[in-house]
Structure formats: structure tokens, C-alpha cells
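Entry 14. Structure prediction run on the chain below.
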Amino acid sequence: MKGNFGKYAYIDLSNNITIDYPIPDDWYKKFIGGRGIAARILLKELESTAEAFSPENVLIFATGPFQGLGIAGGARFLVMAKSPKTKTISDSFCGGNFGEVLGKSGFDGLIIKGKASLPVYILVINGKVKILSADKLWGLDPKECESILVNEYRDASIACIGIAGEKKVIHSCIMVDKTRAAGRPGFGAVMGSKNLKAVAVLGNKQKEIAEKDMFIQLKNEFSRKVAKTWFSKQLRAYGTAFGVEYLSENGVLPTKNFINGQYNKAHRISGQALVKSDFWFKRKTCPNCPVACKRAVQGSVLGEMFGPEWGGPEYETIAAFGSLLLIDDIGAICLFNKKCNQYGLDTISIGVQIAYLMEATEKGLLKEEDQIKWGDVKGVATLIDKIANREGIGDCVANGVKEITKKVGDSSFLVHCKGQEVAMHDPRSKYSMAIYYATTPRGGNHMEGVQDPTPPHKELNLPDNPAQSWTEKARIASEYLKIRSFANSLILCALISSVADGEDYLFPLIRDIFQTITGEIIDVSKMLEIGERNYDLLRLFAQKVGYKRADDLLPKRLCETQPSTGYFICQNKLKEVIDEYYSINGYEVYGPTKERAKKLGIDKFID
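Output returned:
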């Protein structure tokens, strides 16, 4: 299929071997790219019994047909492997320059297996791959690592890990451009377990495009439309944190370890407050994106400097280190963001873990040397250092849910799903999120479908979707999940590919762009089918690992009543809706039934 190079690079670190890995054309037609192709490869190449930190785990860097072509929101890539958190395959999406360059490399992605005997990095240049010594890079932070490699390979884009990944901290990320993170599932630790410090990519190869002139016309139209939406204008002005006060007013902003959904100091940590603060520096953007939603800050807190090279905090970081910990100091949050980027740590997971320790301190469950009180800015900065360096109680945090709850002795208030800490959207205020958190094999992930509320959807034939209504919620959540999964196979930024109907809904144009690239026609029905198929590959692998319907649960805290709003989730009602969700999607043990899988063309993966 056009719009692809037709191959991945297969890299065996144990045996120092690199070969081409051809992708059958029918895979591209069925799975498109990104999430779909990556999951299909893992179902072939990765044994379900492999441990996340074993040489047998397979780490994939993937692109899709939109990468390397200068499409707004298309400068992204996907990482997929077995997660040390969820113990099944998961995916993470990352912006910055790396995905766009990988899309010109001569490969559609990289398949990395094995473990090098000594630290290495991978160099990819125009269809050729080398495995090289990373002795001089090991122990460096992402800024230092990138500086050395870019000095050696001009115009290269670098994906690398910090010391947290080297030490296999389960919350570690893969960092790009020092400020963008492939976070959440712990893939920085997977790279560390393989003695893989970095991947450097250079390329100027062009994919074959079916209708070049029309593609350029539609690509430009898409960029103009993206720039004009209300949502894009808010993102440009105030970043992803523009809605902090709105979310707090509506009970969505996680506060004090998810005890509440409203924070009385939300105005002090909003995107608007950041832009007005002394720490504000400028906006940043991904390649070819007209939105410029990224922040850059500079300043000093606690005697530690942070500069614009480390970016600035996104919404998730602001909530995780702000309201969740009862910290209203925007400068301190900027510092925490810098420290996490420098170490290569996922800010959401670290914030949730620290909130858990703060509540454990309040409950008298920790020894004095391990205690940390609500709002303790200096304590948080110190604890981030300890987690990255595996010192003291930070070593327990670094090993994830099982070890830290054993240390505390009470797991009832650590907010996670399937070992993955829950993101910064309280589902008691938007019920679709409750379904996604509970059911996705990716764990506490907020990027599966839609953010309630949404208006009626003409193209998807969906009704009005109030945030706190269970009416048709199973069907609504299912359809939105499918379209988001389709976008994840194109690897198109979620911030400019809204799945909800309205002026931001650009999927008819997105499908037209896809057609001009590949020559393949996709209507609404086929779009949803592809999204369903690719998501169900994740569930099929999870079923092989041992996941069952009983694992699709919300943590106890998210079913308790918010004190300020009275919002809560009835567990019996949630169970009823998830049962309906299973019925709608043809799920049985965990993945689709044999009949449903056959319809999707993936029944061969059912044992």
C-alpha cells in the first residue's frame, strides 16, 4: 500500500544483528499502521509468557502513513511492548521531531529484541541500521545525550532514556527533544533492561503518494482548519492546562489523591496563571503544527534552575503535581516538570505515587524518614530525586504498585487500574472515563475514547452524551473508542483530531487525506472496523496473558463520594454498563469471541 516503505528494521541486540522485516501489503490494508501494525507484529514475535524486562520482550517504534509528510498533528510516533506495569502489551504516543524523521528513514518502524551485553545506541540512516557503543552516553540526562549525538549526526532526531530508565524505574519514559515523553507504560525501563540508551534517526527518503497534488491541497486545508478551531485557539493561548478552572468547577480535577474533584486554588495553577507568571518564556510546537500548544518556562525554585530547554508543564503534570498534592505553587510545578524530564520520569505516575505516600503519612502508616506531608514542595523535589536514583523509599516507588503498597500496608487508596496509575480526569464527573479506565488493558489511561460531555454525533449516529448519564453510555463509549483507535493507527495527535462532533471534528477530511496518500478508500464503517480490530488485538494479547472480565474494575477511591460535589459512581451500575459494553463489543473471556474475531479477520489469535 502506498504511503509506506513496506518494511520495518528488525534489530537483535543480543546477537548484534539487523535485518529488514517486510510487512505484507494486506497488513497495511487491515491494520493501517501505528497501533495496528505494531500490535500485529507483537502477536507474531512476542510470547505472552515473556517478562517485560527479559531479552525476549520486543520493543517497537512505529509510524503510520501520516508520518514524514508534514501533516499537522502527524509528527508523532508510537512505542509498543509488554509493559512492566500492566504485564501485557501497551502503547504510548509521543510528539516532537522523532516521528516525522522516522517517517523519512526508509523504515515504517523498528522492532527491537534481545539485550546488549554493554550499553548501546541504534543509528538509523536512510534504510540502514547500526548498533553502536553507548559507553560515553550511559549516565547522561536526555539533554546531554542528545547534544553528543546531534553533534555527531547533524539533523538527527534522538529518542533516549535518562538515568531512571537506566535503573529500570518502572515509571520511566522514553524522551524526545528533552521535553516530549513516551510515558505511562514504563518503556524507558524496558529500554534500560536492554542496555539501549538511545535511538538516533536521520532520513530524507520520500514515501510514494497516490495523488500528490490533491494530497498537498488537502494537507494545507487541514492545517488551516485545525488552526481556526476554538479548541486550538485555547491550546495556543494557554496550553493543555487552559481548562483547569473549568475542570475543577465540574468536579473533574483530581484533588488530594482523588478524594475530591475540586481544588479551591485551581486558579493559581491554571494555564492562564502560567502565562501570566514570572516563569513564562514562550510557546513551542511540533513540526508542521499550527497550534503551538507546548509551553517553555524558566526560573528558579528551591535554588534549582529550570530553563526553556526542558519545556513546561502540561495539564496532566500540573494536576498531578498541583491539585493532587495540594500544591498551588506554579513555579514549583515547573521545577518538578524539569526534574522529571531530566531523569526521564512519567509525571502522572510519579504524582499519583507521591499523593499515595502523602495520604499514607496522614494516616500514620509510614516511618518518620519516609513521611511526606500534603503540599510539601521541598519534600516532593527530594522524593523525585530519590525515585530516579532508587534511594530510600524511592526504591519502593520505583518498583511500582505491588512493592509500594506492601511497604505502606494498605493498598485501598492507591489509585491505579491494572498496575497503571490513573490519569488526571476524575471519572465520577464523566462516566465514559469510568468505562475506559476500568476496561482498557492499558490500565488507567484517559486517551482511549472521548471526554464527556459531547453533543449528538451525526456521522457516528450517536445521541447527546451528558457527562453524568449512563443512558447508552456503553454504546457511546464503544464507538468513540473505535474512532480514537483508528486515529492511533494513523498516529494523529488527539488534540487536533477531536472525535466529538462539531467544528473540531475533521475525520471526513482526515479520511480524504488518507485516500490521497494510500489510494485506499475508507468510509465511516470501515474506519470504525479498523479501529475496533486494532484495539481488539490489545485485548487478545491481554487474554493470552491471563486477563479476564473480573479484572475490569475501578479502584475503590473512584467509587467513593466526592465531598465537595456529592458525585460518586455506583459500582453495581458500572458493572451493569460494563456487561453491556462486553455484549456490544462481542467480548467473552476478555477479548472478542471467535465469531466476532472472525468477522474482524483476527480469529487466528484465539487459542
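The chain has three domains: 7-202, 240-414, 421-605.
Filed with the rest of this week's runs.
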